[in-house]
Amino acid sequence: MTNNAETDESRATALCKSCGLCCTGHLFVWTKLRSAELDGIQSLGVQVFREPGRRGFNQPCPLWDGQCTIYDSPQYPRFCYTYKCKLLLKVLNENIPFPDATGIVRDAMTMIRELETLLPESPLENFRERLVEYLESEVSDLELLLKAQTLLSFFEEHFGVDDFFEDPGDGRSG
Q1: Into how many domains does the chain fold?
Q2: pLDDT 10s digits, 114-144
Q3: Range of the domain at 65
């Protein structure tokens, strides 16, 4: 028996599994884990940190390979399961058609690819950290600055991420 709730949930799952911006270091610097999850995630080859108040792993997630490789696994972190970006909530609440939501993800990825080609080389692996590092430096490339501001506004409008320059202590970004 298929009903609208099941269809909406499967569309939301498809959107989440294919998007991955919260897994790839584009939206966040690290992912929070419960202490009971640390050993399981570490057993998958992920380097975890265990400091009180900051248990988790750095982004990009090494278990992301074009999509989450542990999405249906018992090791899938609870925080990953419970996190819902603004776009995903709109899909779940039927406030945006699924094709429009996937188009927004494609647009974000296009903007990211364009911006990544303009960012100077950095030893930092995480896109968010590289972008913040550049924006906090003496910015001289107007094209890069404009594209960065456009992307940050897009992230805020569509994904609800607006805290690129501070750690709000929400456990997800850092």
Answers
A1: 1
A2: 999 999 888 988 898 999 888 888 877 889 9
A3: 4-159
